[in-house]
Amino acid sequence: MGQSVSSAKLTTRRDCYHSQRSYSKSTVLISPMKTEEAEVIDELSDFISDLPDECLACVFQCLTPADRKRCSLVCRRWLRIEGQSRHRLSLNAQSDLHPLIPSIFSRFDAVTKLALKCDRRSVGIGDEALASISERCPNLTRLKLRACRDLTDAGMLAFAKNCRGLKKLSCGSCTFGAKGMNAVLDNCPALEELSVKRLRGIIDGAAAEPIGPGLAAASLKTICLKELYNGQCFGPLIIGARNLRSLKLFRCSGDWDKLFPLIMDQVTSVIEIHMERIQVSDVGLEAISNSLNLEILHLVKTPECTNAGLGAVAEKCKLLRKLHIDGWKANRIGDHGLIAVAKSCSNLQELVLIGVNPTKLSLEMLASNCQNLERLALCGSDTVGDAEICCIALKCIALKKLCIKSCPISDHGMEALAIGCPNLVKVKVKKCRGVTPEGADWLRANRGSLSVNLDMGEHLDVTANDGVVQDNGDGIPPVVAGQIGAPGIASSSTARSTSFKLSGLLGGRSFMACTLRRLASSNGSSRS
């Protein structure tokens, strides 16, 4: 009975639709054959017309950006729905964008994630343009600014007052200073993630204005600072962020040994610390060891850190799951530090050693005590040979992924992997001159399910990115200001957000697939 009622409603709607179309047609002579074809086309178009706007929006979100552009050209309804279903937008933020802002955001009126990127050789948008955008996007939750060098503290203040719900701010190569940053922290109490790179407006030296803590300190969970002349002016913000979970410092000048004791005395919820090419020593590591909830630690090219500092962290931070060390060939971290990790950090799942020289002694301890070790990378080590690989093959039962780069191993080490590491699924060997293609082929033949990747490159450079999976940016393709009138100005939503919306509205893709199959079958039956 439910089906008959719905069928009646659909029939009534179709009749109304047909009556409207027949009324609007001009009076012309049409042959019977053409009339039948027109009715078939009308019936097929009815199925799309019967789809609710929300359902059609979900279809658009499953398409590529190019396909969304094409769909927006079909009719006014599709143009409107495609624009209203855009939540992520990327614009080329040159100065000629300013007069186009009203028309852009009247169409894309549901934007919550915005990226403004400008070429370094071009003149970017100014304070007035950013204020205008913030007035039309009061629900903005994410903002990315790249090379917007004409923005000042006043523009950031105007933006922050209009977008108080901002949760994530990422700015790079901008020229506003501490006042602009403090304006965001004081007016955006929901801010959770802050990423700052090359902020040119921050004054170096003792005259630098401190940044933070502000209202946002209570909600901040992630702080990432990159290439700052005076990154330590963010000290008040970091110290005041009591709920901070992740702290990442890349190439920020200053003596961080003085700041880490103050940070760790107030912030106890940190689970991830990433330090790359900053001035920190065992003093800083001693302070970090007081963060008992620490799970992820990256020490990349910090030559003043030694076995003693690593041992202090390992002794207290027993929840450590991921450890990345780039020793920069300084030989300050070796067997003693790794043995301390093996003794205390039994939950270790991922270990990356670059420019570190472990021996069979420490590797055997790690393999025996860290039974959950699943990912291991050994790069640029002079002491990792066939004996060490045999030890890993024999002891690392849970190991799933192994990466070896620029190490003195040979085909004999590869043979050991054929009978060891029962859970191993992937092996990557790069720039190890003793390993031949025949040895890799032999390993593939003896372990058919194992993926073996052999790279015979001749260059011996080793970087911190080898052997680990790095997070990419959101990768939003910029739109040229001259193309503003085009329907596809915005980038598509991510697959993650798309799946969330689909599951919430339709309960999965099966409903949509069934509808499309029904349309296809109707088309086929009508033509036959």
TrEMBL record:
Residues 45-81 form the F-box domain. PROSITE patterns: FBOX. Gene3D superfamilies: 1.20.1280.50, Ribonuclease Inhibitor. It comes from the Eukaryota. InterPro entries: F-box-like_dom_sf, F-box_dom, FBXL15_LRR, Leu-rich_rpt_Cys-con_subtyp, LRR_dom_sf. PANTHER family: F-BOX_LRR-REPEAT PROTEIN 8-RELATED, PARTNER OF PAIRED, ISOFORM B-RELATED. This is F-box domain-containing protein.
